Amino acid sequence: MKVLITGGSGYIGSHICMELLLEGMDAVVIDNLTNAHIDNLREIEEYTGKKIAFYEGDVRDRKLLDQIFQEHEIDAVIHLAAKKSISESVKFPVDYYDNNISGTLQLLETMRLSGCRTMYFSSSASVYGPQEKNPITEEFTVGGCTNAYARSKLMAEEMLEDLYQSDASWNITVFRYFNPIGAHHSGVIGEEPNELSTNLMPCLIQAVSGQRDDLKVYGNDYPTPDGTGVRDYIHVVDLAKAHVCALRNLEGKTGYRIYNLGTGTGYSVLELIHTFEKVTGLNVPYGIAERRPGDLASCYCSSEKARKELGWETYYDLEDMCRTTWKWHKNLLRREKQGKINAE
Ligand code: NAD
């Protein structure tokens, strides 16, 4: 099976490429490298001994998309290419709609003309907006989004549903990711913390490595066991494997379906910090700050539907998530140091 992965050099995309190649599938990647390094794909090629067809460019570039679909017989598309910073999306909503919505439109039109009608779309738990109850199932109402990022994901989901309603020959799957963290156990790929990231793990890594003074824990008076916010962290490799299960189980089918991807277990911020300290032996400098407006006490999902329908299981626990993140980070530092020495 040949799969086009948009945004395939990024954090989640690179882990999906790795799993696809390890499962004997072929990967074609388009990425404009605005938030990724080409090194990720080289590392995957070296680790798996297989080649990835890589196109540096933008999913809004119709000519390039046409070229890719002419040069390859694509069986399915996994569409990850998107901007993903919530805070940036509040400042620059038009950029977010342009990138995330226009990109999806161009891709869908190219797919339609080329005859490829199988699409896996990377959506987000943020489409649920604020919810009072847990676990969140796919039947919960969506909307009430508080930022352009979440709204762009919801709009794309609605476009995909409309498309399926208009033409039932499409095979469309929406994955709502909860909180992916961790890295491949080899340490060759992982998430590169970026100054825009407000996600917990990248901020924790920056605090541990002295790139920020400390890790801010926003609120310790929530109605949770230790007072800090609870989220559904999922190992990125488990998340990537869900795509492989779906490609296998939904091949040749038609439909429009939605799956939550999380572990179904909530972990608090302090649990994550203390687990990281336990598995690495390091001290995480952190301080308690005021609650942030809009943050929920607790948010975790039920992923029973994906388990039942896709035959998917999660294997990694919180310790694995912390251990692999740290292994990757040490490798990244080594790589950066080596790059500097080679450049001198
Ligand atoms: P990432 O930034 O690491 O990966 C996205 C990739 O897409 C990057 O390599 C970037 O260079 C590329 N890209 C962006 N716009 C592009 C464009 N117009 N054309 C071509 N390439 C483009 O992010 P990620 O964490 O790997 O997220 C992947 C997807 O999963 C995104 O759609 C994101 O919204 C979604 N998601 C991520 C999370 C998370 O916590 N990481 C949670 C829920 C959903």
Q: How would you characterize this protein structure?
A:
- With 344 residues, the protein is α/β, with parallel strands linked by helices.
- The protein has eleven helices and 14 strands.
- The strands form four sheets. The protein has a seven-stranded parallel beta sheet, with helices on both faces. It has a three-stranded mixed beta sheet with strand order 12-9-14. Strands 7-10 form a two-stranded parallel ribbon.
- The longest helix has 26 residues, at 318-343.
- The mean pLDDT is 95.
Task: Provide a concise account of the structure shown.
Helices cover 43% and strands 17% of the residues. By secondary structure, the chain is of the alpha/beta class.
Return the average pLDDT rounded to an integer.
95
The overall strand count is 14
Query: What is the 3D shape?
Result: globular
Q: Report the helical percentage.
A: 40-55%
State the end-to-end CA separation: 43 Å
**Beta-strand proportion:** 15-25%
H/E topology pattern: EHEHEHEHHEHEEHEEEHEEHEEHH
- How much is the radius of gyration in Å? 20 Å
Ligands, deduplicated: nicotinamide-adenine-dinucleotide
